[in-house]
Write a structure and sequence with these properties.
The structure holds two protein chains of two kinds. Chain A is an all-alpha fold. Helix content of chain A is 75%, strand content 0%. Chain A is elongated, with a radius of gyration of 20 Å. About 4% of the residues of chain A have low confidence. Chain B is an all-alpha fold. The relative contact order of chain B is 0.05. In chain B, helix 10 runs antiparallel to helix 11 and helix 12 packs antiparallel against helix 13. Chain B is elongated, with a radius of gyration of 29 Å. The chains are: A mainly alpha, B mainly alpha. Chain A: Keywords: Sigma factor, Transcription, Transcription regulation. Chain A: InterPro entries: RNA_pol_sigma-70-like (IPR039425), RNA_pol_sigma-70_dom (IPR014284), RNA_pol_sigma70_r2 (IPR007627), RNA_pol_sigma_r2 (IPR013325). Chain A: This is Sigma-70 family RNA polymerase sigma factor.
Chain lengths: 193, 244
């Protein structure tokens, strides 16, 4: 991959990651009004805008903390595209009514498109993984929760009253089960294209 | 996949395979695309779970902070819309009540306050790549509004770097927030007489210090000395109008 230059707006990503209240406030003051306008013009109201913005910021936070998120375009473009996509998805999900969408090309420059797309896929996967995790049986859920919280497999085993070998085998089988649930879902195949 | 495959995945990720087993595993990854897909998903889920549980506390803190900011922001946004839904007679009642309240507490309401004008943002003192723990402490404390801790860090920093205008300025702001006006004003006065980038900002904050102490005459005097090319000139003019 070619080395792309980090955009100065990376400070917004870093600020989110550090849970910096000033930066979060700045994002609302600077970038959110445009999102509210867009949603209001496209069959939504300010409650919808509030949810979409919040969801989008959580997705960005998760991606930044889990995978490293390096911004090579203005935050404005990236953030707006993400909110827009999320809103259009929301409309598709709920609306049987006529939807009029002012689809216009607001941003040129593929960096923003590409990054927004990546984050979007990341967010969808997170949601799917969480949904599938919740479908696991109680025993698996408990074991996996303990495993990833406690770290030491010996401790996990003794806290659950099983042997180390059994706990470790169970861990692989539970993640295996989760792997199957995820792979069977049609959504995953769409996302993994 | 068979049970044995998942156990193998886990052993491979944990690095528990012998050299021969590892080679065999990697050969199978290349040859068998279904095996490869399953392994990649398994790995992705492993890292998802790891993150989900490891960062639970940080992530919850972020979400609750975000929720608060979002709520406040949207309440402000929605306020005027709710007013519009009032009926005319409700306006009349509201106006009368407002007038009565206005008359009784006129003085309190008419005075502008420091909080409306102090507009400093979050700070970033550390240079990328340069790790200075004390700077980091100051920065984090300031940005989370723990001004007492920030002041402590600034004080130590200035022992090493006493001519740093940026440090002087933010130390002054921290002191203002703590109502330690003497300290704040001495720092701001020296900045306002200097030639740093913080010269005009310092004059503006000297005025805000008087505003916070409700010494409106002194505040006005200082405001009038803010030059037209200063960043805060417009804000200063606004404040002058309110005070006059």
């Amino acid at each position: 991959m070619s080395e792309k230059k980090l955009h100065e707006d990376q400070k917004y990503i870093d600020g989110l990651l550090k849970n910096n209240a000033f930066i979060i406030q700045a994002i609302y003051d600077k970038f959110v009004p445009k999102v509210i306008n867009y949603i209001k013009q496209n069959n939504g109201d300010s409650d919808h805008a509030q949810d979409i913005v919040q969801d989008t910021l959580i997705t960005i936070y998760n991606q930044a903390s889990q995978k490293k998120l390096e911004l090579t375009c203005p935050f404005d473009a990236y953030f707006f595209l993400l909110c827009k996509r999320k809103w259009l998805n929301e409309l598709k999900k709920t609306a049987h009514k006529e939807v009029t969408i002012n689809e216009e090309v607001l941003y040129k420059g593929d960096d923003a498109q590409e990054l927004a797309f990546e984050t979007d896929v990341f967010g969808e996967k997170q949601a799917l993984f969480t949904e599938m995790f919740n479908k696991l049986g109680t025993a698996c859920k408990e074991l996996l929760t303990a495993t990833f919280k406690i770290k030491s497999m010996e401790e996990v085993a003794s806290s659950l009253g099983v042997t180390y070998a059994y706990a470790r085998k169970k861990k692989s089988l539970c993640i295996g089960k989760l792997t199957e649930l995820v792979q069977e879902s049609p959504k995953f195949n769409l996302l993994n294209k | 996949m068979k049970e044995q495959d998942y156990i193998l995945f886990e052993n491979y990720i944990l690095g528990d395979l012998s050299e021969t087993e590892k080679n065999a595993f990697e050969t199978q990854l290349k040859a068998d695309s279904k095996f490869n897909d399953s392994f990649n998903t398994y790995k992705e889920l492993s890292s998802f779970l790891e993150h989900k549980f490891e960062n639970e506390a940080a992530s919850t803190a972020f979400q609750s902070n975000l929720e608060n900011i979002s709520k406040t922001y949207f309440e402000k946004q929605d306020a005027p819309i709710k007013v519009i839904r009032f009926k005319i007679w409700q306006y009349a009642v509201a106006a009368t009540v407002a007038l009565l309240i206005g008359i009784t507490v006129f003085n309190n309401f008419s005075s502008p306050v420091y909080e409306d004008f102090a507009d400093y943002n979050s700070i970033s003192l550390t240079v990328r790549g340069e790790q200075d723990a004390l700077l980091k402490t100051a920065e984090n404390a300031f940005n989370t509004k723990d001004f007492a801790k920030a002041e402590e860090a600034f004080r130590s920093l200035m022992l090493i770097d006493k001519d740093n205008a940026e440090l002087q300025f933010y130390r002054a702001v921290a002191n203002l927030e703590l109502n330690k006006f003497e300290m704040a004003e001495s720092l701001l006065t020296s900045l306002s007489k200097g030639q740093s980038a913080y010269k005009n900002k310092a004059i503006w904050y000297l005025a805000l210090s008087d505003l916070k102490q409700k010494d409106y005459d002194a505040c006005l005097e200082i405001l009038k000395t803010i030059p037209e090319d200063a960043d805060d000139y417009d804000e200063a003019q606004k404040l002058i109008k309110k005070l006059d």
